Amino acid sequence: GNSVTQMEGPVTLSEEAFLTINCTYTATGYPSLFWYVQYPGEGLQLLLKATKADDKGSNKGFEATYRKETTSFHLEKGSVQVSDSAVYFCALSEDTGGFKTIFGAGTRLFVKA
Amino acid sequence: DAGITQSPRYKITETGRQVTLMCHQTWSHSYMFWYRQDLGHGLRLIYYSAAADITDKGEVPDGYVVSRSKTENFPLTLESATRSQTSVYFCASRTTGVGMSNSPLHFGNGTRLTVT
Asked: Which of A20, A101, A108, B56, by CA, is between 20 and 30 Å from A12?
């Protein structure tokens, strides 16, 4: 079945450091790929998405490119802020059946001032 | 306000008791989902519903029951709670139509359930 694997955390960075969170997926068909972010005590919210190969999703300085050849969707940000501290989830949305969304285990990011 | 609301936010119950978690959305989204979030597992799908009166099992359905008599409500019931069902439960919805796989999920703020 379809699955998502992302790097384990926690990831601890200093403010203004470069961020990469790796995500790879296994899927049949043509899924859409998402990054969601979860702040303490809240539900997940969409950070960015990409719907086909070579698409780049971007939002709030975060970027991720849908790489079909490497089945990857790595999240990057050039300069993190303390306010970026959160848990980040990579996810894929199936394009058939129940259109279910499958999540990775999540990566917790701590940014120090 | 438009959105998706879960209640209660926190619940403590005893092993063997029945408990129902509520979910209400105001967008009239056809699809609704229940996930549980556990450390190291991310979010795992319990049940989902494509429309009123249409439900289907997800990855971890055992011990749970759902119903959907109205489009806007999707309650989740634990018929006889067990300690392994201690978790944070999230309800989500998404729009439907052409390109539905492209549409993101909209989440509630979750219910933290503790089974003692």
From this structure: A101
Q: What single DSSP character describes residue B104?
A: P
Percent of chain B topping pLDDT 70: 94
Whether residue B96 has pLDDT greater than 80 = no
Beta strands (DSSP E) in chain A are 3-6, 11-14, 19-21, 23-26, 32-38, 44-50, 56-59, 62-65, 75-77, 86-93, 101-103, 107-112
* Cβ A105 vs Cβ A49: under 8 Å: no
Q: Which residues contact B62 (CB under 8 A, 6 or more apart)?
A: none
Q: What is the pLDDT of residues B22-65, one digit of tens each?
A: 999 998 898 999 999 998 788 999 999 989 999 999 999 999 99
Chain A residues close to B50, C-beta within 8 Å: 98
Residue A105 contacts B, CB cutoff 8 Å: yes
Total length of chain A: 113
Q: Which residues, 6+ apart, have CB-to-CB distance to B97 below 8 Å?
A: none
The pLDDT of A76-89, averaged and rounded, is 97
Do B42 and A105 count as a contact with CB atoms less than 8 A apart? yes
What residues contact residue B54 under an 8 Å CB cut-off, 6+ apart? B68
Beta-strand pair A75-77/A86-93: unpaired
**What integer pLDDT is reported at residue B95 of this predicted model?**
82
SS3 B101: helix
Residue B45 in tokens: 């799908």
